[in-house]
Amino acid sequence: xxxxxxxxxxxxxxxxxxxxxxxxxxxxxxxxxxxxxxxxxxxxxxxxxxxxxxxxxxxxxxxxxxxxxxxxxxxxxxxxxxxxxxxxxxxxxxxxxxxxxxxxxxxxxxxxxxxxxxxxxxxxxxxxxxxxxxxxxxxxxxxxxxxxxxxxxxxxxxxxxxxxxxxxxxxxxxxxxxxxxxxxxxxxxxxxxxxxxxxxxxxxxxxxxxxxxxxxxxxxxxxxxxxxxxxxxxxxxxxxxxxxxxxxxxxxxxxxxxxxxxxxxxxxxxxxxxxxxxxxxxxxxxxxxxxxxxxxxxxxxxxxxxxxxxxxxxxxxxxxxxxxxxxxxxxxxxxxx
Length: 337
Ligand code: NAI
Fold this sequence. Notes:
By secondary structure, the protein is an alpha/beta fold. 41% of the residues lie in helices and 20% in strands. The strands form two sheets. A ten-stranded mixed β-sheet has the order 2-1-3-12-11-4-5-10-8-9, with helices on both faces. Helix 5 (147-163) packs parallel to helix 6. The two termini are 23 Å apart. It binds 1,4-dihydronicotinamide adenine dinucleotide.
């Protein structure tokens, strides 16, 4: 059955990598009706709004979107695109798989980071504190962690592990210092973990030690679940372990919609040069196909993608090669068989 999906090509290199992605998914037999919408700078150009209502309405209808990188215009009065999307669709789980394809420093990383996306220090409750005559003598940021939010993100991690045949969930925290907020996350996580005993292993790591373990022996990790700020930092660290931002897709899963994207930005330094790597957005497209039940397409594309990047002739510049976006895309389509 044809599935309607909102497509936001994005800014900068976005349209070029979106074209490549749609071309490959279509060649692999994806049965998707793309509803093209704009956001970011393209949204400002067309509707005077980086997150136009027409785009939000489309996602409300389709409940699934593939999003290219977006530039949030500088200046007051513009709403932040990511915040608007997170709020509109309660996108609470940020899911970032990372897998070694081109062997580098590590040969067999295959892990998924599940980051809580709506709570913690990122809720934006900040203010200055006056001391004496200085109105900005100090600043205070409030981290809010709820039992509800902790339970649903840890449960999401376990369910993801079960659904994808993964064996272990590592919960990352700092409860030894932040005894209330992180303590609540850890306690709730332990409670959820008990329900999965015998089906999925569970372990705990303190964030600072985790950062070290990841660069020393990343192969030992399977599914990692953590709070917002720690997840933000670890996810970029993990991207670096598997060949950089051009290889890492992300999914934002919400209660009313799921939005799939490349982790990287608009790459202003290479716009128009025809050398962008569409890999991250393509892998996000594979996650999307899995999400809508088109697993065979996802598997076929992943296989063709892996075969292509293993061949030096087809690597783009960010992976140390000289191939153009078009040459890379042609090679993936050819590898579909
Ligand atoms: P960036 O990710 O756009 O670029 C960092 C470096 O990686 C650049 O050298 C770029 O050429 C390279 N790069 C990124 N993606 C690539 C790809 N697919 N192929 C080859 N090389 C690639 O990060 P930067 O420069 O900090 O941000 C640029 C703009 O992107 C900003 O306006 C920022 O706000 C926006 N941005 C948007 C995101 C989103 O919509 N999800 C995420 C991150 C940044």
